[in-house]
Design a protein that fits this description.
1% strand; globular; mainly alpha
């Protein structure tokens, strides 16, 4: 499609795009935001991974939960909460004004970089934390025996060994920034800050004679950037694969004095609480406000926004659509992903390996590009485009790799001898699956499917392009409210979604504790 034009096959679309000043600006903004948000994610994610992995601070579980909060809560809700906190009439805005400090503008490139850096911090944290714990203490003891100080040991031993994981996490954060449509859409569209993902969206909804071809050309440019990042990340993973078989060491390695330990511990909690909880609490107060932009006072608080949502058919439809999509996506991914993982692990099936590679690619390619490809392919088939069916296809295609990876881990934990014992006693494949494999796989697979469920429930990139009037999702509904200026209603619906996400997370945590017990 990107090479198809009025005069047949050629590079006409690319020439026209590059002649438009907005395209180079979108490419520059995309790269600038991705690079600098990645730097912020690396600094915060790497720092907290180091504190949790090596120091003797307490309340590590609480701190880790606060670090991972932006990973659990949808990025557009975080963008919405921060924009409300620093918007005109907000508490921070008035405080900055009284102190004669310039008020940060969230509807700017700097605001997008800041929010995106916070949202992708958990990606770096998870990548670096495991590697830091796998570095053998024997290497540290050998360095200390040779006369190295703690700082020298960290600089000469630990950090170089963790560098591949650090860089790999940075590339994952970069790819997530390239893929992220929600934050630039919420903070950039109204401020006229184009990036490639929002430019593709704007081309498609313009419905011009060559809008889809132009969007396809932009998608190819965005995909080239993403594939370059994937290739580099794969090279880094190969460089750090020698530590994959090592067991994680959860013991502390740096013992701080009591005052320093306490200061670091509460410093982490206060800082993370400030970037996580304060914006969300402000969003909660905004959800109860009658009039947006006015001071928070008793006479300006009301349940009107929640009452309006409770009596709005569109809200019920959006929640219903998102719930159905999430459940069906989970079921499809569990069935196909588990079958693929089992064939790969037990039989080294080549078809399963090809499917896994294809699923990895569709997850790595930006969601807005996948959505456009879905339109081009399935739009030719009657009764698919514009229905909930194309959303199910898109969601399943997008998130299948998560279930393949999760099921692979779960199957590897089941020793083949259990299945062989069943065969010795005369059980067929169906009975072995029913009585041995399925009971052992059920809990880890359902626990791992939580990420798919939450991702599908709060998804925006795919639904912004594929949803029709009757198939709007929660994320798209919040986006439409925000773009329409209904900030109080968007805040109220965001609060409900956060509560649903936290409830789902609590259920998963309960299941994990039951498993441990």
């Amino acid at each position: 499609m990107s090479f198809s034009g009025m005069d047949g096959i050629g590079i006409e679309n690319y020439v026209l795009l590059l002649q438009d000043n907005r395209t180079p600006e979108a490419i520059y903004n995309t790269m600038f935001i991705a690079v600098f948000s990645t730097v912020l994610s690396l600094l915060l994610g790497g720092l907290f991974a180091f504190f949790i992995a090596y120091t003797n601070i307490r309340k590590k579980r609480l701190i880790e939960l606060m670090v991972l909060a932006p990973f659990i809560i949808p990025s557009y809700i975080i963008a919405l909460s921060w924009s409300g906190l620093l918007d005109t009439g907000g508490v921070l805005q008035m405080s900055f004004t009284n102190l004669h400090i310039p008020v940060p503008n969230m509807y700017s490139i700097g605001g997008i970089v800041f929010v995106m850096g916070l949202c992708h911090m958990p990606i770096v944290y998870l990548s670096v934390l495991s590697t830091l714990r796998k570095i053998s203490k024997d290497l540290e003891w050998a360095a200390r025996t040779s006369g190295y100080t703690t700082s020298q040991t960290l600089m000469k031993i630990n950090f170089p060994l963790a560098m591949p994981a650090f860089m790999s996490g940075g590339i994952l954060a970069f790819l997530a920034a390239i893929d992220n449509f929600a934050i630039p859409a919420f903070l950039g569209i109204s401020a006229n800050i184009p990036v490639l993902s929002t430019s593709i969206y704007e081309k498609v909804i313009s419905f011009g004679p060559s809008s889809f071809n132009m969007a396809a050309a932009l998608s190819v440019i965005l995909s080239i950037i993403a594939i370059g990042g994937i290739t580099l990340q794969n090279l880094l993973i190969r460089g750090s694969s020698n530590q994959d078989s090592m067991q994680e060491d959860f013991s502390a390695r740096i013992f701080l004095s009591e005052p320093r330990r306490r200061n670091l511990q509460w410093g982490c909690i206060v800082f993370l609480g400030s970037i996580d909880m304060v914006p969300l609490l402000h969003m909660l107060l905004t959800a109860f406000q009658k009039n947006y932009g006015m001071q928070i006072a008793i006479d300006n608080l009301s349940l009107y926004n929640f009452s309006f949502l409770a009596n709005n058919h569109g809200v019920y439809q959006a929640i219903y659509n998102s719930a159905i999509l999430s459940i069906l996506t989970c079921v499809i991914c569990i069935i196909i992903g588990t079958a693929c993982a089992y064939a790969k692990v037990r039989y080294q099936n080549r078809a399963a390996m090809v499917l896994e590679s294809a699923a990895s690619l569709t997850y790595a390619i930006p969601g807005i590009v996948i959505a456009l490809a879905m339109i081009f392919h399935w739009g030719k088939i009657p009764h698919v485009y514009g229905s909930i069916g194309i959303l199910i296809l898109a969601y399943s295609t997008r998130y299948l790799i998560l279930q393949i990876k999760n099921s692979t881990t779960a199957i590897l934990a089941i020793h083949p001898a259990l299945e062989e014992a069943g065969k010795i006693f005369g059980a067929n494949e169906l009975r072995i699956w029913k009585t041995i494999v399925s009971p052992l796989l059920l809990r880890p697979i359902l626990t791992g499917a939580f990420l798919i469920f939450i991702s599908a429930l709060t998804e925006l990139s795919l639904s912004s392009m594929l949803a029709s009037a009757g198939t709007k999702t929660v994320g798209l509904f919040i986006f439409n409210l925000q773009q329409g200026g209904d900030y109080n209603l968007s805040a109220a619906l965001s609060v409900l979604i956060v509560l649903i996400v936290l409830l789902a997370y609590g259920i998963v945590e309960y299941l994990n504790r039951q498993k441990t017990c």
